[in-house]
Amino acid sequence: MENLHDKRKIYEKSQLIETEIKENPIEQFRDWFLDASENPSISEANAMAVSTLEEDGCPRTRMVLLKEYTYEGFIFYTNYDSRKGKSIEKTHKACLHFFWPGLERQIIIKANLEKISANLSDGYFHSRPKGSQLGAAVSPQSQEIPDREFLENKLKDLEKEYENSEVPRPENWGGYIAKPYEIEFWQGRPNRLHDRIIYTLENFDWRISRLAP
Length: 213
Hints:
Strand content: 25-35%
Largest sheet: 9 strands, antiparallel
Number of helices: 5
Shape: globular
Structural class: alpha+beta
Distance between the termini: 29 Å
Pathway: Cofactor metabolism; pyridoxal 5'-phosphate salvage; pyridoxal 5'-phosphate from pyridoxine 5'-phosphate: step 1/1; Cofactor metabolism; pyridoxal 5'-phosphate salvage; pyridoxal 5'-phosphate from pyridoxamine 5'-phosphate: step 1/1
Binding site for substrate: 67, 124, 128, 132, 192-194
Radius of gyration: 20 Å
Binding site for FMN: 62-67, 77-78, 83-84, 106, 141-142, 186, 196
Pfam family, one: PNPOx_N
Cofactor: FMN
């Protein structure tokens, strides 16, 4: 066993105080996201963990790339028949988590999810590199497959089939928009007295409060 008791870090890069934050959490997210995007130590600022609840009652978390955000919510794309897709269709909820250690910051977002329109999914699908389009069409995401060769053979077949034509978007692949009802911003601070500011949606307005670390 390895003792990790002494693996500690002093958090002192920034602060999060009420007089300096935005009234709307999406605007606060935008400011922090821009900071993360411009930080050389962060290679993928739009990488986020998406947690959904599985049938056995245990949450399941995976990394997904955020592709767009608006005042309405956060958009990502996936296979609707995947484990995350099936969980979302059952509960219509998920928790999104951004962690940017280079800034000593986290954002936790609880949201209701719904599919975006088919034409929006079409637009994004056809903006992707053709290899990514083929990969989405090839993979029966989350299903058991015999081996790696199974995928590679299917990819070769589709490459030939669509060599000179457009790859159609699979009907079971598209986008979700996560409409937040709670967003927490976490800023590391010295002595583990971290700043935690939480926005809670109440009657279409955002209530701002501070949580103890």
